Amino acid sequence: MANVRRRCGFPNGIDVSARGRSGGISLGWTNDVVVSIQSFSVRHIDFVIEDVIGDNRWRCTGFYGAPEERFRAEAWNLLRHLNSVLTLPWLVIGDFNEILYSFEKQGGLVRNERQMEGFRNVLADCALDDLGYTGQWFTWEKGRFASTNIRERLDRGVANEAWQSLFPHFKLEHLIKSFSDHCPLLLNTDVSTTGNFLRQFRFEAAWVLEGSCEDVVRHLWASTADLLPIKLQKIGQGLSRWYKTLCSSRRAREKDMQQKLNLMYELPVSDESLEDILGLKMELNLEADKEEIFWEQRARVNWLRNGDRNTPFFHNHAS
Questions:
Q1: Which of 20, 51, 218, 230 could form a disulfide bond with 56, CB atoms 3.0-4.6 angstroms apart?
Q2: At 192, is the secondary structure helix, strand, or coil?
Q3: Interacting residues of 288 by C-beta distance below 8 A, sequence separation 6+
Q4: CA-to-CA distance for 120 and 242, rounded, in angstroms?
């Protein structure tokens, strides 16, 4: 996980190992935020964030609920304990492995009311409110056939009133998943925040997955007879224009596929609908491959910047 965090641009972090093939928690953060770890276990990482820009101090707990029902009460008591040790604006986010109400599950066995009541009680005891969401209603799914398909909202964010007052313009999204059986949660504490970035020309490794890339390079190469440095400069300018147009069409196409996937999830479960969903996921996987290559290319800069500055480090990553 340390390598994954570093490749994603988070040089600082803490990792709690999985037990067998389930669990495991990782927290990563950048150098422009001050994070103080308060406690951690196989169920949680509790930390305080000092926002230098906004001069805010608040608390976040990454939580992993007990998958087994017999350990659920122990997990809820951990939340109650965390609630008692520190008074700050508090956000708890993660996979709680439980639903609040029966309508948050579709398919499979009916959830025991006592289990859901235990979850509702601990949130009430800790004065934590569900933050809601945008996107598809469920966060976990298994089963490729209508007869075995199960969907549940197991992942969520909850926060106390002080946190919601501190970040009144927050937005929590259920992102479209294509690999995992869980969907990622994306929490933006201020949806009004936008950024403008200037970027220099770089040849993107992900471009080679685009069918039109080779033809564009051939056309640009043949369209100028200048000396090599000027020729390369013009090719770079042409590729930048091509990439800008490509990005617009790709974003529109990906958004269209995500909207179609959301609509498919609203239809009654059938073998035909699940087949269509699988096809859309495969198309999104290809887009994800391009995105992964995009960020992996940038991760090489992170390795050089944040890695151990010695010969074995560079040799290993070069290999």
A1: 51
A2: coil
A3: 178, 179
A4: 52
| H or E element, residue 237 | helix 228-266
Q: What is the mean pLDDT of residues 128-150?
A: 92
Under 8 Å between Cβ of 175 and 147: no
Distance CA 111, CA 268 (A): 20
Of the candidates 8, 3, 91, the residue with the CA atom closest to the CA atom of residue 45: 91
Strand 105-106 versus strand 56-64 pairing type? unpaired
Q: 140: part of which helix (H) or strand (E)?
A: strand 140-142
Is pLDDT at 312 greater than 90 in this prediction? no
Amino acid in the structure at residue 251: R
Q: How far is CA 154 from CA 83, 94, 195, 293, in A?
A: 21, 9, 32, 30
> Looking at domain 2-188, what is its CATH homologous superfamily?
Endonuclease/exonuclease/phosphatase (3.60.10.10)
Burial class (CB in 10 A: 0-12, 13-18, 19+), 9: middle
Are 304 and 7 contacting, i.e. CB atoms less than 8 angstroms apart? Answer: no
| Dist. CA 229–CA 238, nearest whole Å | 14
Kindly give the pairing relationship between strand 44-51 and strand 56-64.
antiparallel
* DSSP symbol at 207: G
Q: Hey, CA dihedral for 125, 131, 133, 139, is it positive or negative?
A: negative
Tens digit of pLDDT for each residue in 164-216? Answer: 989 988 999 999 887 889 999 999 988 775 444 334 567 888 788 788 889 99
Residue with tokens 């498919």: 264
Q: What is the DSSP letter of 182?
A: B
pLDDT at 199: 47
Sequence ranges of the domains in the chain? 2-188, 205-318
**Residue 41 near residue 23 (C-beta atoms within 8 A):** no
Q: Please state the φ and ψ torsions of residue 298, each to the nearest 5 degrees.
A: -75, -25
Contact between 277 and 261 (Cβ < 8 Å): yes
Assessment of whether the complete model's pTM goes beyond 0.70 = no
Least confident of 20-24, 127-131, 163-167: 20-24
Look at 55 and 313; give whichever has higher pLDDT: 55
